[in-house]
Amino acid sequence: MSIKHIRPTASFAKLVKTVRFISSLVGADVSTENYQVNIITIIVIICIIMYFIFTATTVASVFSENWTYLLEASCMLGSVLQGITKLISGISRTNEVSGMRLELEELYRVYETKGESYCKVMNACCERVWQLIKMVGLIYGAAIVGNLLLTSFMLFFTNQKIYIMHFFIPGVDVETSFGYLLTTALHSLCFLAGCFGLFGGDLFFLIYLGQPELFRDILILKVHELNEAAAQKDNKTESLLISIIEWHQYYTDYNERCNEIFYYIITMQILTSGVSIVFTMYIILMGDWPGAYLYILIALSSLYLYCIIGTNIQTCNETFFEELYNINWYELDVKERKLMILVLMKSQNPSEIKIGGVLPLSVQTALQITKTIYGIFTMMLGFLDEEQ
User: Fold this and answer.
1) What gap in Å lies between CA 12 and CA 129, rounded to an integer?
2) Mean pLDDT for the chain?
3) Spatial separation of the C-alpha atoms in residues 98 and 225, rounded to whole Å
């Protein structure tokens, strides 16, 4: 029985097709050439505007009676700001995003012809990205289904009206059945648009920043080919070494471009996730919003997902440095050794993904933020004990 081999170009095309489909649901398929704002994009923008207007009027109307409602209403503000940043960044950089997609498609086509070992590492990269997409999709799916089921359960079995979001429509009485259903329908629309928008933005991040592991694996293959050629005194040695140097330069340039494209998205994602976690934990302590338990799952995932990807890139940088040192330089001629010195010097200063251009995007940074959140949470407990 023959085993059917999947071409890497087909695997990557499947990834891109999935990302473009999900992004198109919120009118943000920015990886397409000549992208234009469409009716779906306008509807999403209207949902965002309604969220801010209705949330502001709701907070203003109840703030004098219950100031903690401001914290409750601010829980989802972080996700809304993340969605806005992803939408604006995507629309303003559609040429760079679509250009990078075409560039990666060409890369897969070129290296697909270089042999089974290259096909294997490219398919493995696509599989890793697929697993990440499924994991993130399950998290957003659990939040969507969980909130909708919780709202329905509380209404039909306990006759208690709870809300998916934290705003009311001016002039609509939520005490009536029609008013409550209308408010819940608008909440559901905004919540779904927000989840699909955040998910779509995360998918582009996962695909583009999931490729450095592929660059690492291809470098390992290139170094192996060079060492074999050098051992056999093959005249292809110089061209293989130049190919490795160009590959390292391309990897560095690719990371720098990703850093530029996702600069504001990453910064907003990390900062607002931390603030949202603090507010949501406070609301959980107060016990005012049952959906807080589901929402904090999204906030924590948003924080650690991006930081884990950043740590993977740091690991790739270290592997690049180590693999370049694995080149059997003693089997190269003098001219080739001089070229090796240049690339080794360059590899000592790798390009990193940074938060706000200052902090490295890494799990260590996420842990530092978590420690800060824990400190603030301890202060909250003390504040609540004093009130009681």
Assistant:
1) 10
2) 84
3) 32
Tell me how far apart the alpha carbons of residues 187 and 237 are, in angstroms, rounded to a whole number.
63
> Which residues, in sequence order, are CB contacts of 3 under 8 Å at separation 6+?
none
In the numeric block, which tokens belong to residue 225? 């080919």
The two tokens of residue 219 are 């470098």
Instruction: Say whether pLDDT at 267 is over 50.
Output: yes
Q: Give CA 138 to chain center in angstroms.
A: 14
Q: Which helix (H) or strand (E) holds 360?
A: strand 359-360
How does 183-215 read in b/e, with b if 16+ C-beta sit within 10 Å?
A: bbebbbbbbbbbbbbbbbbbbbbbbbbbbbbbb
Say whether pLDDT at 2 is over 50.
no
Express each pLDDT in 321-364 by its tens digit.
888 888 887 787 877 777 777 777 777 777 778 888 788 888 98
Distances (CA, A) of 280 to 48, 78, 288: 21, 11, 10
